[in-house]
Amino acid sequence: xxDPNTPSPDPIIEGVEMSRPPVYSPELRVLLTNAVARxxxxxxxxxxxxxxxxxxxxxxxxxxxxxxxxxxxRREVNIRWRxxxxxxxxxFPPLESIVKLKSSGNAELNSVVAPRKLGMQxxxxxxxxEELVGDPxxxxxxxxxxxxxxxxxxxxxxxxIQNRSTEHPSHWVKxxxxxxxxxxxxxxxxxxHDTFEVEISPLAHSPNNSTSKVIHxxxxxxxxxxxxxxxxxxxxxxxxxx
Length: 242
Known about the structure:
Distance between the termini: 70 Å
Number of strands: 4
Order of helices and strands: HHHHEEHHHHEEH
Radius of gyration: 27 Å
Number of helices: 9
Helix content: 40-55%
Strand content: 5-15%
Strand order of the largest sheet: 2-1-3-4
Largest sheet: 4 strands, mixed
Shape: elongated
Number of domains: 2
């Protein structure tokens, strides 16, 4: 919410210290301009210097200022600060930040503390949620023999059922945590270019975010069926070519 490295701008009203406009830190700028970190439409870069709620009359060289006179400086200060407070309430606050380092020409993400720590840095909350989500896809249906073994195991001991329920959360619980991950962006600091980026977990689920789709990894059984489907097609193509 603040940037101690940036000098304070000049006050809009001369001699009034409280009339200084708000300062957007680099972390806050990238959150406000990124769709995955916002509850509404992201801002544009020009909104930081000229908020969209500020009327054109605030510009002394505009046609409105020439016709109706200069805009009130006190109103300009209030509009700028109101815009700042309202827009900062529309972002999803990140829990932690990481640093992108480059080694031997390949970009790598490392769990290194960014230039400024966030509120829940190194608390492990993000990793715990991803562990709870686990595999977001449903497993293939069990065979009759597997169902029989499971039923006999459940009849033998109730402790097995209790352990299974704690180790494998229901799909409803997984979907809730995937939705939560979509509301937890992560700040990524690029040390080489001194810039910030926003990323979201690949396990996150959000209907408004097309990048949250996870591709199901192909298991050995699926690969076997794919290979069987490909081989006849290749044979037919070779016969046609002959």
